[in-house]
Model the fold of this input.
Amino acid sequence: MIEWRADSARWEQVARVIRKRIESGEYPPGRLISERGIVEEFGIAYTTARKVTAGLRTEGLIYTRPNYGSFVGPEPTDNE
Amino acid sequence: MIEWRADSARWEQVARVIRKRIESGEYPPGRLISERGIVEEFGIAYTTARKVTAGLRTEGLIYTRPNYGSFVGPEPTDNE
DNA sequence: AGATATTTGTTCGTATGTATC
DNA sequence: GGATACATACGAACAAATATC
Done:
């Protein structure tokens, strides 16, 4: 369970945890936990979980295939 | 960008802009810009954007379907 | 082809706390 | 002190695309 801190937004704190899991290899390249999964695990609202994935996406740490899922790693290109 | 004036509330100033767009036909009957869209475009807080739609709703200029969206025009009745 | 399950996408509704004028 | 505005978060409903069986 996360001990929420008052000095940063919850979505940022959750993003930090997931970022660490990616960097440590706990979340290897491939499918990421779903947004609803994040809701369940961290006990946050869906709208907040959306901000988590949006943040990680902006960082380039994950990419998202619409209506399907998010993935750890760089966005794949066409020719492959 | 809106140049905020001190003589009226921000939500009123934004409502005035949207009202003009409706009356000019720039916003035709049908779906209105979302509340979050208003937040983005005008650089105001969500709670303030809520007051904008509330005001336009009170005027009867728009109606809102909960959890779905706001629409330009009169509230539809059941029998049609 | 069709039904189903899964997942993301979008939107409004509501509440709380903080800051500023 | 009250009104206004901002930031954040939770909750809920529904839409739409995708993959699977």
